[in-house]
Task: structure prediction
Amino acid sequence: MKIGILGYGNLGKGVECAIKNNADCELAAVFTRRDPSSVKILTEGVPVYKVEDIEAHKDEIDVLVLCGGSATDLPKQTPEYAKYCNVIDSFDTHAKIPEHFANVDKVAKENGHTALISCGWDPGMFSLNRLYANCILPDGKDYTFWGKGVSQGHSDAIRRIEGVKDGKQYTIPVESALESVRKGENPDLTTRQKHTRECFVVAEEGADLAKIENEIKTMPNYFADYDTTVHFISEEELKRDHSGIPHGGFVFRTGKTGWNKEYNNVIEYSLKLDSNPAFTSSVLIAYARAVYRLNKEGSNGCKTVFDIAPAYLSPLSGDELRAHLL
Amino acid sequence: MKIGILGYGNLGKGVECAIKNNADCELAAVFTRRDPSSVKILTEGVPVYKVEDIEAHKDEIDVLVLCGGSATDLPKQTPEYAKYCNVIDSFDTHAKIPEHFANVDKVAKENGHTALISCGWDPGMFSLNRLYANCILPDGKDYTFWGKGVSQGHSDAIRRIEGVKDGKQYTIPVESALESVRKGENPDLTTRQKHTRECFVVAEEGADLAKIENEIKTMPNYFADYDTTVHFISEEELKRDHSGIPHGGFVFRTGKTGWNKEYNNVIEYSLKLDSNPAFTSSVLIAYARAVYRLNKEGSNGCKTVFDIAPAYLSPLSGDELRAHLL
Result:
């Protein structure tokens, strides 16, 4: 399976690594909006092209993995490149998924291609677990917790504050809330009761630290509804202790079974990831395999993880899966 | 969707309850090997027939749920009734799944029916989680723990010992082993290091308790390889404190991502169930929905949970799923 990567940031690099870790995959080309000669990739002997050259190289690619951002890149790119190739993205603006789906579906169907959107862990593996658990326990309650991990959006918000040189934000689930859900207590939890936020900030020399801390803690949407801790640290400390991009989280469904709903059940799924982009990329490559196979079978148009039978993700045959994993 | 139940034990009753909890399902009939007049079911106005009458009532049933045992019932029943109906079972003898699959597949295909075997939580939801996690983390290690819960097979083994009137056995995962796996330490665990076994035994009057305890603890396959605790209790205590059938367990995969496999990841799925048969039945009914739909689409033959796209389990449309659960 020949994979193309569009966009060589953290996610693009992650996809390159995931290809190396899957024997049936091969990196065909990387496409970039930068000057290709300035982009140094890890895999030897693989070309880097300008993004405008995708059409010219479309026959060398079985699946194109789109590694741009959800805010402005993917809404344009995924429908655009579904014209030329099978495509997969990790579009994660939950509220805009229906619109994005419709746009991609139209182009993919018109061109006989298969597309998969919103693939990763949330949306992605977390969504799958919500769906399975909702179908098994129709009478129940869902809980999703994120972290401990780095939120890119919240880190960016900190860095936009005057006097801030650099910063990193961790989202942390509240342990007592997790425990209550896990015990089947079905708590009603406010935003503040579910997560705390911890910020590590490098201030400009002479900046007003109290003012920065106050601006962070009162920032609407991002921090105001949470218990937030702010630590001022040096640039060296930030680099030494906070350069990773770990993440993870928990999906629960608690629900009742029995004639009089007398039995409680707790379904829990959790992830603990040293690198968010490396894991997301690994999910993307497993699903790229499915996209490739579905296209070969003539199943075109846009899909999500909900539409893919799990066996399509595996390099093993049905016989092997039944014998070893069932 | 009209459901038939074959076999009205714990699992059959569980299926009846799950039907009540799913608005799009209706119990059409219960089939039994006992005298139908002796079988009192919970749902009013639904007939109980002799198992021999299935063929005569096949047009009243969209999916027949087979609730017999894996040792001798299902290997015969599932292929037999795939002749007349779409069928689903929870066949759980892992080693014999390939053979059972082939037998059921042949009959289902010949008769234009859809069958799903080995559906429940293990095999079933645990298998799905093993598969997804293996596809995402091809370089990793799997761990499955069961419990805390009642093992029917081990309870039966205790009850066969001379001098034992009744008994119940709990399988318990070793907490320190769970913690080690959860931390990503990738331990190599022996049978003894993964689970302990706790037995509650009602002895016949005058029985040799030391002899019973020794027979349990040294029983090959069932107990000899485990740290086993035996408690002698009264019949009243057994009834009062141990009449439930709780179960559950944990599926982990730990694995590496990154160019030099420098990142660790832990995927964990767990279940905590007040009633094992009530939960298994809830999984069966969600998958019965898929079987019914696949048959309508003309997708015949035998399937497993690996072959079913998750959206087929839900009463919601693709649009609704994308808008609310993705």
